Amino acid sequence: MQPPLPDHDTIARVVANALAEDLGGGDMTAQLIPAGRSANARILSREAGVVCGRAWVDEVFSQLAPHSGDVELSWHVADGDEVSDGTTLVTLSGAARSILTGERCALNILQTLSSTATTSRRYAQLVEHTPVKVLDTRKTLPGLRLAQKYAVRVGGCHNHRVGLFDAFLIKENHIAACGSIAAAIRRARTLNADLPVEVEVQSLAELNEAIEAQADTVMLDNFDLEQTAHAVRHTAGRVKLEASGSIDDSRLVRIAETGVDYISIGALTKHCRALDLSLLLD
Description:
Number of strands: 12
Shape: elongated
Structural class: alpha/beta
Distance between the termini: 34 Å
């Protein structure tokens, strides 16, 4: 089942900002093309990957239509589909000016979200033999938080908190400012008893403090494999455990096999290399 898209207003804002950034006072080169000229084009993949971002591409040409003419898009793939080199993702037909003006914005978003989905699919497949959930982080590209978190879900991984507003994540500096783990958790429960409380710990002693203070989840920050396995045995299901910190392909599977509940990986969204896509006029 396809994960739900961000709402239309969120998608429209991202696209409007991208177009404003690119267009400025207008597309000077597109003005070389007669206003009534039509064209056919296609976006194709230059490498294998997972497609994500159709709604944003549709919105690019929807927003351009009143200014430079309508474009009809016919998609041949859905978000989440795996494609190979040379696959045509979508064909476009309509105003040549709109197609060429919208090309870069459409490709920028589609390439970035497809990259995030592709990376997420790879990580999800690496640990599919375990019950662990691979989570994203807040290390997203500015302005693309909800878009990238959607792409993570399309790829088969899961979302951590969306931002600073929807969960407590008590880290080392919060603990120092509050005085202790227990004090920070008590304050969180007082402020909003409905929000989940997670605590980042640096040692097994701090893990015990977090368990005793009844955190919902404990983040094991940069624990090595042996420490992580010990933490899982010691905790015995009393709280959820999340492994975090410099986790790449080489460590992911071994950490998942320790029995932690979650593994958070900033690389899902911040180390993305755009999927290689091109738009070609026929």
